[in-house]
């Protein structure tokens, strides 16, 4: 598939004209060498990286920008960079006089540059250093603001530069993360169809099929990715970018982010709040996809109750404070605004049970997802070793508090919230 042709947009049978405002995507050997020509209209350029990503692609980028006036923000590489207010301010302080921002990195660097670009109106490019996530081409910036994980609608990069000589040498867990992020689309796409049935949410078959095509292509890459084969890494990166374009087409992250991402965000936010370890985003997404598959299997195999589960307000507030600590009030305020706790969902579930179950069944079983992950040496034992049974139960019940999106976590909570989740 020609990505740059896809960027022209699609007049879709769903009735919308899908578009993505990225001007150019280059994925391949020596792709960084072309960034000088891409940047010929700009003189003052700000480079944003961390010490690790700068070591991976900084020198090549600087060499390709010979003759430009360059400044930079390089974050420490020994600690996890958090895309919060402090990091934003460090980049913002260097933007005066800047005509172009070039991020050198992957997830967090990408999100920071996207956010600052949106705030200042300065265009940005991203030089990818790992095939680790699908946000390169999406309109959302995943930020942590006020302690909350929020997705800010912040536009897309003007260009994506992905040099396979750099990508294939990324840390293996970053390559595994990209593969895992794509496997997670099984769950995200299923949640999208579920919400279409339950909430009459907009759904586009073209975007669904485009995303699922990338899943099927990625599953064939496992052996080559473990061997760091350049072509396998190139195809994975292409799949990640196309999924990002699909999100731009949809106008939200809905095709690519659902219950599996909410669980991943839970582990990240509670990890930051409590000073606890968590996996890289895509790996958490991959493992969490197994959990959401288990949830769907329970919903298909157990009798549905005749009453909708709800905690008394005081007990609910107490639990959220216990779990989320300083960000609890933000979670409560978000859910109060959405109002799902106040809705009678049981009547909807009963009326549409056959449709709901048909969609839930149209996803690989948990054991099949585990085999997909094992193909790139991701083993669920590592997941259960890092996260306690109590933490998993809290995640299944309350990861949904972090977002305003309906997923299978809501269906499970509404029907079986009073029963502790068991893996």
Report on this model:
The protein has 423 residues and is of the alpha/beta class. It has two domains: 3-169, Rossmann fold (3-Layer(aba) Sandwich), CATH 3.40.50; 179-416, Dehydroquinate synthase-like, alpha domain. It has 21 helices and ten strands. The protein has helices spanning 3-6, 35-38, 51-64, 85-92, 107-120, 164-167, 172-183, 185-199, 205-219, 222-226, 230-250, 259-274, 281-301, 313-324, 328-338, 346-351, 353-361, 366-374, 380-386, 389-398, 408-416; strands spanning 10-11, 17-18, 24-28, 44-50, 69-75, 100-105, 124-128, 140-145, 148-153, 159-163. The strands form three sheets. Strands 3-10-7-6-4-5 form a six-stranded parallel β-sheet. It has a two-stranded antiparallel ribbon with strand order 1-2. The chain has a two-stranded antiparallel sheet with strand order 8-9. The radius of gyration is 21 Å and the shape is globular. The two termini are 39 Å apart. The mean pLDDT is 94.
């Amino acid at each position: 598939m020609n990505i740059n042709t896809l960027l022209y947009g699609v007049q879709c049978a769903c009735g919308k004209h899908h578009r993505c405002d990225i001007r150019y995507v280059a994925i391949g050997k020596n792709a960084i060498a072309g960034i000088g020509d891409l940047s010929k209209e700009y003189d003052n350029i700000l480079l944003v990286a961390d010490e690790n990503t700068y070591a991976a692609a900084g020198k090549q980028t600087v060499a390709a920008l010979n003759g430009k006036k360059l400044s930079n923000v390089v974050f420490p590489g020994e600690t996890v960079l958090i895309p919060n207010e402090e990091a934003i301010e460090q980049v913002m302080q260097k933007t005066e006089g800047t005509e172009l921002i070039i991020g050198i990195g992957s997830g967090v660097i990408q999100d920071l540059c996207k956010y600052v670009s949106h705030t200042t109106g300065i265009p940005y490019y991203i030089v990818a250093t790992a095939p680790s996530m699908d946000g390169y081409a999406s309109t959302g910036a995943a930020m942590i603001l006020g302690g909350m994980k929020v997705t800010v609608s912040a536009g897309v990069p003007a260009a994506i530069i992905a040099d396979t000589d750099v990508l294939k040498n990324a840390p293996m867990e970053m390559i595994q993360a990209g593969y895992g992020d794509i496997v997670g689309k099984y769950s995200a796409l299923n949640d999208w169809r579920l919400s279409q049935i339950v909430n009459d949410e907009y759904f586009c078959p073209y975007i669904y099929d485009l995303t699922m095509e990338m899943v099927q292509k990625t599953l064939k890459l496992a052996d080559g990715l473990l061997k760091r084969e350049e072509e396998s890494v190139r195809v994975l990166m292409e799949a990640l970018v196309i999924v990002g374009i699909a999100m731009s087409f949809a106008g939200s992250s809905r095709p690519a982010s659902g219950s599996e991402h909410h669980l991943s965000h839970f582990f990240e936010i509670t990890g930051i709040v409590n000073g606890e370890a968590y996996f890289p985003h895509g790996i958490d997404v991959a493992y969490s996809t197994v959990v959401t598959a288990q949830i769907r299997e329970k919903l298909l195999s157990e009798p549905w109750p005749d009453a909708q589960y709800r905690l008394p307000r005081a007990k609910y507030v107490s639990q959220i404070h216990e779990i989320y600590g300083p960000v609890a009030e933000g979670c409560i305020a978000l859910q109060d605004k959405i109002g799902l706790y106040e809705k009678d969902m049981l009547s909807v579930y009963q009326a549409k049970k056959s449709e709901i179950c048909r969609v839930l069944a149209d996803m690989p079983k948990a054991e099949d997802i585990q085999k997909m992950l094992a193909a790139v040496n991701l083993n669920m034992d590592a997941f259960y070793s890092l996260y306690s049974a109590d933490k998993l139960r809290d995640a299944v019940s309350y990861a949904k508090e972090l977002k305003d999106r309906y997923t299978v976590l809501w269906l499970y909570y509404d029907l079986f919230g009073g029963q502790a989740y068991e893996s």
